[in-house]
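Re-run with default settings, no changes from the original entry. Doing this only to confirm the output is reproducible before filing.
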Amino acid sequence: MITLMSPLLLIPDFKKLSAYSGFFIFCCILSICFIFMFEIATIYARNQGQAVEMTYSDETGKVVTATEEKMAEAFNYEYFNFGMFPMFMGEVLSIFEGNVGLLNIYSQQNQPRSMFKQTVVTHVVVGVLCLAMGCLSYLAYGSLIQDLSLIHI
């Protein structure tokens, strides 16, 4: 993937990337919508009493179907895990890390002063989406979530 996208970094004028970035943003929004729909459908089915098959990775890395006992203990929600708080902060830093690309985009702006406002709005939107996805995933799958960015939120 990096090999395919690296020639894009050689383009000096970022305005020429608008079609590519528009398509990329559309795909990201579409995938987030599908994830939210799937999680809401899972929560709804579980609340209606329908059996929802869940899988997880055991200690050896093998994918296993969750038993009734494992699913029952998965939904004993733990609202805050103090032991994982440093890991959570590390993930927050990696989600909102600043990068050198921001400086290039800043220099290409017609009105560079408006970039601060745009950056703040973007970070707020990303933060709300991450928090919403983490909460919905935790409600849908309980402690069977094993993805780092979702289990610690």
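The first strand starts at residue 55 and ends at 57. The beta strands are 55-57, 63-65.
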